[in-house]
Amino acid sequence: MEMGLRNRVAIVAGASQGIGRATAEAFAAEGCRVAICARNAASLKAAAEAITKQHGVEVLDQAVDVTDASAVHGFVEAVINKFGSVDICVTNAGGPPAKGFMAASLEDWRKAVDANFLSAVYFAREVIPHMQRKHWGRIITITSITTKQPVADLVLSNAVRTSVVGLVKSLANEFGKDGILVNNVGPGFTATDRLKQLAKTRAQNSGQKEEEIFAGWAADAPLKRVGEPREVADAIVWLASERASYITGQTLLVDGGAYKGL
Ligand code: NAD
To answer: Which residue, by CA, sits nearest to atom 33 of ligand 1?
Structure first.
C-alpha cells in the first residue's frame, strides 16, 4: 500500500525507546524526515543514529522534557529551522506509575497531568499554525487502552488520559477545516520497558512472578499475546498516511482485542 508519506516531516515525542522509537522507525521506513525527542540526550542520539543508518533518512534529535512548554517550543522551532515545516506530530511520554487512588500523591497527579495531558497541549499549540499554513497536518496522541477501559492500579492513567480524548475530539472539530486530522491511539499491553516495570511493580505487590503477570496479560487478549511496539507504530503510520484521509477525532485501540466493550 502506498502511504504517500515520502518526505513528510514527522515529529515523534518520547522516542528514545519503546512505542515512540518504533514509531520513529516506521515513519523513517516510509521515507519521512523524522524529528525525535526524549529527556536523555545519549540514548536519543543512539536511536537517531540507528534510524539514519537503517533507513538513510535525516533525523533531528533534541533532548526535551515534554512537560516543559518552552522546551517543546524550542524543539518545534528547531524542526522548522532544519526541515522547513512539520506535517505530522505524534505526542508521547512515559506513563504514570501504577498506583491505587489513596497511594497516589497530589504530586503524582500533577506529574501525570503534566506528562500525559499538558504535553499534548504544548505540542498542538506549536504545530497547528504550521499545519494550517500548509492546509495539511496530522496530530496523533499515544495514550492507552485506559481511555476506553480502566485498568486496575492505573488510576492516574485511567483518569488523566481521558482528557486527551476530549482534547483530540475538540482539535479535530476545530481544525478539520484546515486539513488537520487529529486522532488518538491507545495501546494495550505492549512489550516495552514500561511493561516490564509494570510487571515488576505488580509482582512486588501481589507475590506473583513477573512471567505469570505477563501470561495473564496475554491471556486477557483474544490474540493471546501482548503486542509488539511495531504493531502500534504501524497503526500510527497508517493514521498519518493518505490512506486514512477521512478519519479524524477517533480513538484507535491497538490491543489484540483486549477491550471488552462493543
Ligand atoms: P517507555 O517508558 O518504554 O518509553 C517512553 C518514552 O518516553 C521513552 O523514550 C522516554 O525516554 C520518553 N519520556 C518519558 N518521559 C518523558 C518526558 N517527560 N519528556 C520527554 N520524553 C519522555 O513507554 P512505552 O511502553 O513505549 O509507552 C509509550 C506510552 O504508551 C506511555 O505513555 C505508556 O504509558 C503508554 N502505554 C504503554 C503500554 C505498554 O504496554 N507498553 C500500554 C498502554 C499505554
So the answer is: 95
